[in-house]
Amino acid sequence: MGLLWRASPFRIETHYHQFDKDVNGEAIGEEWDLDISFRPVRKHNLSLRLAHFESANNSASTRKVFLDYAYNL
Q1: What is the largest CA-CA distance in the chain?
Q2: CA 71/CA 16 separation, integer angstroms
Q3: Are strands 44-55 and 10-20 parallel, antiparallel or unpaired?
Q4: C-alpha distances in angstroms, 51 versus 1, 8, 24, 27?
Q5: Buried b vs exposed e over 40-57: b needs ≥16 C-beta within 10 Å?
Q6: Is residue 71 within 8 Å of residue 44, measured between CB atoms?
Q7: Listed residue (11, 13, 12, 16) closest to 1, CA to CA
Q8: pLDDT tens for the 73 residues of the chain, in order
Q9: What is the dihedral of CA 64, 31, 2, 13, to 10 degrees?
């Protein structure tokens, strides 16, 4: 499940994921993602991604931040 908003040169996207075991359907955890992209001209793209995983048993919760730049030929 997610949402997307665009207004050039920005793009903001969110996603929610719920993870369960295949065998018995027991919950593993859930994750929220937020992606923000800035593309001022066709050749340049700057992206920021925030991710938060919350374990169902509070043992392996994780937060990550990624910053990415791309130059398109």
Answers
A1: 49
A2: 29
A3: unpaired
A4: 15, 23, 26, 19
A5: eeeeebeeeeebebeebe
A6: yes
A7: 16
A8: 899 999 999 999 999 999 888 888 888 899 999 999 999 998 999 999 999 999 888 777 899 999 999 999 8
A9: 0
Distances (CA, A) of 14 to 35, 46, 62: 6, 17, 17
pTM, whole model, 2 decimals? 0.79
Planar angle of CA 22, 52, 44, nearest 5 degrees: 115
Tokens 């369960």 locate to 20
Query: In what order do the strands lie in the sheet containing 27-38?
Result: 2-7, 10-20, 27-38, 44-55, 62-71
